[in-house]
Amino acid sequence: MNAKITYEEGELISLLKQKDEQAFSYLYDNYAGSLYGIVKQIVTDLEVGNDVLQEVFVSIWKKIDSYDASKGRLFTWMLNIARNAAIDKTRSKNYQQFMRQQPIDDNELSHPVVRPGYDDYGLKKVILKLKDEQRLLIDLSYYQGFTHDQIAKALNIPLGTVKTRLRTAVTQLRIMLS
Amino acid sequence: MNVKEYISSGIVESYVLGLVSEPERQEFEAQCAQYSEVAQAKETFERALENALVQDSIPPPAHLKESIRSSLFPADQSYQVNDLEEGQAPVRPMNTWKWLAAASVVLLAGSLYWGVTANNKYNDLKGLVQENQKLKKQLTEASAQLAEVKISASALQQPDVKMASLKGTPVSPASYVTVYWDTTSKDVFLMVNNLPQPASGKQYQLWALINNKPVDLGVLKMSAEKLIPMVQMKGVQNAEAFAITLEPTGGSVNPTMEQLYVVGKL
User: Fold this and answer.
1) Chain B closest CA to A74's CA: distance in Å?
2) What is the mean pLDDT of residues B225-235?
3) Which residue from A50, A122, A168 is facing B55, i.e. has the nearest CB?
């Protein structure tokens, strides 16, 4: 841990599959911040966010054998675990009850997840540049985990329109990111 | 299929972001396997997304890593096992050294036994010392509390002390607190008859109401995460009523009225 080690992604994955403690430490040091970033976009409460990050690393650790490099990069896989864990948390009864008990100012469930702030970099910055209708769709589907069907019903627009707009929105994201 | 069109349809990004249906996912994976351009486009977007999210990093609280690490590696046994394995010398059949080796094994076993016993005794002793320190700390805390209560109690027997019963609001109907106000010295004492333990990160705060304006009289201190039954608060020159609200630790400038627990007139 003292000497600065860098692993190739393949090497890191095989060490993780061997349950190597140093590899875990490396994984945490390099990715916890990014994963915490996405978790905090979805779960606003500090303590709950910490719990979710813990769950994320435990589940990465447990599921690493099922990770298939041919389907995507390690980060993409971990990102989806983090996003799903955070969304699951916001759906849980406990969390909703907890948020109801918070003073109104802190309860931002009804507000869009991607909020402008002084620290808008990276993905957040790009999403804020999208057109309102596109941002809403990214918000509902990516950050709040609603299905296309649910969105179509909620916004009262045809399912096909939801799909097309969302595809345009994510293409726009790619263009702005590259 | 027009590969270029497929790539620019938004399917690549949707797949990476986890926004595709199950059939779409299967189809995309098949296309990736068949067309290297599709796989390439996927990889490019994955890297771009990864870079963007690295910029959105938020450092987690420092203690979190250790807490996760210790839940994954309970006793750190993997390290010990490795150390032992590395320390073992290869065994070679050398008759000349046989007796010497046997003797050293006996010696080693003896010293190990001694070491283990000594270590056990040391651990026992360490446990006792810790226990002792804990009891000592509890005693000091209890004595300090008692002294405080004694001072408060004697203060209340002064003839100029007025009393206000603060009754629970709909937020917490069973709550009940008594405030004693010394009209001469202006000291304020508070007795917690019944208040729920505040959640972590929260503290009760006492307010005096003067001309219907709240004046901060300080937060209710906690001892070992428990409310102290009798405390002296900040003094106040005048008061019509007193109220207690639940606030973030450290108190607030203005009371959070939705979290009003008890209120009562003097």
Assistant:
1) 10
2) 76
3) A122
The reply to whether the predicted model has a pTM over 0.90 is no
The model's pLDDT over B83-105, given as tens digits with 9 standing for 90+, comes to 444 444 545 555 666 777 777 77
Chain A contact present for B14, CB below 8 A? yes
Q: CB of A178 within 8 A of CB of B44? A: yes
Give the whole-angstrom CA distance, residue A19 versus residue B87: 22
Q: How far apart are CA A138 and CA A72, in angstroms?
A: 21
Distance CA B224, CA B242 (A): 26
Q: Which two tokens stand for residue A170?
A: 């994510």
B256:A124 CB<8 A? no
Task: Count CB-CB contacts under 10 A for residue A7.
Answer: 16
**CB proximity list for A100: less than 8 A, separation 6 or greater:** A107
- Residues B41, B12: contact at Cβ < 8 Å? yes
Whether residues B52 and A25 touch (CB distance < 8 A) is answered with no
Are B19 and A28 inside 8 Å of each other by CB? no
Say what the pLDDT of residue A1 is: 44
Whole-number Å distance between alpha carbons of B256 and B91: 75
The residue ranges of chain A whose pLDDT is under 70 are 1-4, 98-121
Confirm or reject contact between B157 and chain A (CB < 8 A). Answer: no
Check residue B89 and give left, alpha or beta (phi > 0: left; psi -120 to 50: alpha): beta
Q: What are phi and psi for residue A151, nearest 5 degrees?
A: -65, -45
